[in-house]
Design a protein that fits this description.
alpha+beta; eleven-stranded antiparallel sheet
Length: about 200
C-alpha cells in the first residue's frame, strides 16, 4: 500500500511539473533569411498587377497545448511593397496610393479566434482582427493555417535551436475601403485585392 501511494504521488508530481512548465511560445517573424513575404494581386479587365512585400516583422504567441488561443501582430513595411514596373512602383508608394512616407506600416493585429481545428501539428482557424492600411483600420476575419514545427528552427536557420511556426493565409480586401487611390478606373486597377501570406516565425531556445 505504501509503495502504491508513493507511485501515485510520483505520477501526480510529474503531471504537475508538466503543467507548470508548459507555456505559450513567442514567435518572432523578423526573418533572418529574408524569405518571408506577402503577395498581392489586382486582376482588372485591362490589366493585372502582381507584387510582393518582404519587409515583414511582428510576433505571435502560440501555445502548442492550446493552439486555439493564438494572439499577435504582423507588420509589413509599406515601402517594401514591390512590383516589376519601376514607374508603377513609384505610383504605388506615392501619396495617392499607399503614401509610404506618411503611413510606413501595414498592420494586422488579432483580436479573437474561432473554429480552431487541430490535426497533428497543423491548426486551421478563423482569425478576426484589425487590418490597418493608410491609417484606416478595418475589422476583418481571415482563414489561417498554423503549422507548429517543434525543434525545426535549426533546419531552416543553421546554428539556431528552437521551434518554428509557419503561418499561411489567403483573403481579399477592397482597395476603396482603405482609400488607396479610389478614383483609379476599375477597368485598369481592380478594387479587389487578393492577399496571400506565407511566413515563418522563430522561437529560439
Amino acid at each position: 500500500m505504501r509503495m502504491k501511494k508513493i507511485y501515485i504521488l510520483t505520477l501526480a508530481l510529474a503531471a504537475l511539473t508538466r503543467v507548470s512548465t508548459a507555456a505559450p511560445l513567442d514567435f518572432d517573424f523578423k526573418d533572418p533569411k529574408g524569405v518571408n513575404n506577402a503577395v498581392f494581386k489586382l486582376d482588372a479587365p485591362l490589366e493585372a498587377i502582381n507584387g510582393s512585400a518582404n519587409g515583414i516583422t511582428g510576433k505571435i504567441r502560440f501555445d502548442p497545448d492550446a493552439p486555439g488561443s493564438v494572439t499577435g501582430k504582423i507588420i509589413v513595411a509599406s515601402e517594401s511593397l514591390h512590383v516589376p514596373n519601376p514607374m508603377m512602383k513609384e505610383h504605388l508608394q506615392s501619396p495617392a496610393w499607399l503614401d509610404v512616407a506618411k503611413f510606413p506600416e501595414i498592420v494586422f493585429e488579432s483580436k479573437s479566434i474561432k473554429n480552431a481545428h487541430t490535426t497533428g501539428n497543423t491548426t486551421t482557424a478563423e482569425v478576426t482582427g484589425s487590418l490597418t492600411i493608410r491609417g484606416i483600420a478595418k475589422e476583418i476575419t481571415v482563414p489561417v493555417k498554423f503549422t507548429y514545427l517543434k525543434d525545426k528552427l535549426g533546419s531552416r536557420v543553421p546554428n539556431l535551436k528552437g521551434d518554428l511556426l509557419v503561418v499561411r493565409a489567403a483573403f481579399p480586401i477592397k482597395r476603396s475601403d482603405y482609400g488607396i487611390n479610389p478614383k483609379a478606373p476599375e477597368d485598369k486597377v481592380s478594387d479587389a485585392i487578393e492577399l496571400v501570406l506565407s511566413i515563418a516565425g522563430a522561437a529560439p531556445q
